[in-house]
Amino acid sequence: MELSWILFQKIFSMMIMLLIGYILVKTKKLKAENAGVLSVILLWTVTPCTRLTGLQQAYEPGKLILLLWTLAAAAVIHGVYIGLAGLLRKLYKLDAVDRSCLVYTNAGNLLVPLIIALLGKEYMLYIVPYLIVETPLFWTDLIRQFNPKYPLVLKKIILNPNIVAILVGLVLFFAQITLPKPALDLCESMTSLAGPVSMIMIGMIAAELEIKSVLLNAKIWAVSLGRLVLFPLVCIVLLALTGISRQSALIHDAFLVIMLAASAPVAATVVQMADTYGSLEKAEKASAINVLSTLLCVVTMPMITILYQMFC
Q1: Which residues neighbour 72 within 8 Å (Cβ) at sequence distance 6 or greater?
Q2: CB-side neighbour CA atoms (13 Å) of 63
């Protein structure tokens, strides 16, 4: 319960950051389209640094085993999410935005400050497996959701800054090469920006939305709650049935990181891909679900954490 309370407090403080972005646009200090600048900063500088920072850990055989376990869990979770979203898509005639919002989470940016606050910086290592699985899917499956005919070029996927950062980070981790202090300080400083910049960006996007129409849209609520509650509950059931997370306290905490990633709000990347490869209408809808799910996660993520601690 204490862990959930810490999580609630940390997420609540991040919601204030979101409010700052909202106020800056509403008071005309910034324009909503300026959020695109923050998006570029996140993609090309902040998020690659979070990957490198997470992998700057001392190598131990036990950590390697845990990394493999969490990588397998991340792969299974994404497979389950994609399959479940596909089933719901047929049953309830969900569109590409609905389906993408159900599958992809804002694990890369939102979770960094949460993991540090809850478990310590060393546990950032265990968010990397989730990102190893999710990041290539952003540039393959997610793009294809909005543009089925888009040609997928392997070179572009591999040279994505976040993929490059993960590959470099893994080489450094296994070779036990520590970045020079100035470079490490830079990466850690940039990593500390992940949560604030992401939240301010979402707040700026929220300022452009018609809040009343969002709150009265049952479909947006259904998809948001599916992302935050239904899909994570499926993960909890699977973990409870397998009992993997109960083998030791270290495994339990490492899988908590994966569980937090699986229960995070909709990824801002969905909005970016909908805008770039879809249409303005799809981008606006994705923005609405992204904002609502981010607001609701103040309640849902601590709730999921409590259930994880009780049953897994």
Answers
A1: none
A2: 18
Q: How far apart are CA 183 and CA 6, in angstroms?
A: 31
Q: How many CB atoms lie within 10 A of CB 28?
A: 7
Q: Which two tokens stand for residue 259?
A: 């569980």
Task: Tell me 242's DSSP state.
Answer: H
Question: Which tokens belong to 26?
Answer: 């509403």
Residues 6 or more apart whose CB falls under 8 angstroms from that of 238 comprise 76, 80
Residue 199: burial class (beta carbons within 10 Å; 0-12, 13-18, 19+): buried
Following CA atoms 52, 53, 58, 61 in sequence, which dihedral angle do they give, to the nearest 10 degrees?
A: -60
CB under 8 Å to 58, separation ≥6 — which residues?
Answer: 176
Copy the structure tokens of residue 78.
């994404």
DSSP state of 105: B
Q: b or e along 46-80 (b: 16 or more beta carbons within 10 Å of the residue's beta carbon)? A: bbbbbbbbbbbbeeeeebeebbebbbebbebbbeb
What is the distance, to the nearest Å, from the Cα of residue 252 to the centroid of all Cα atoms in its chain? 20
Taking the C-alpha atoms of residue 293 and residue 206, their distance in angstroms, rounded to an integer, is: 12
Q: What is the pLDDT along the chain (312 residues), one digit of tens a residue?
A: 688 899 999 999 999 999 999 999 999 999 988 888 888 898 889 999 999 999 998 888 888 999 999 999 999 999 999 999 999 998 998 999 999 999 999 998 889 889 988 898 889 999 999 999 999 999 899 999 999 988 877 777 888 888 899 999 999 999 999 999 999 999 999 999 999 999 999 999 889 888 888 888 999 999 999 999 999 999 999 999 999 999 999 999 999 999 999 999 999 899 888 888 888 789 889 999 999 999 999 999 999 999 999 999
How many Cα atoms occupy the beta-carbon half-sphere of 46 within 13 Å?
20
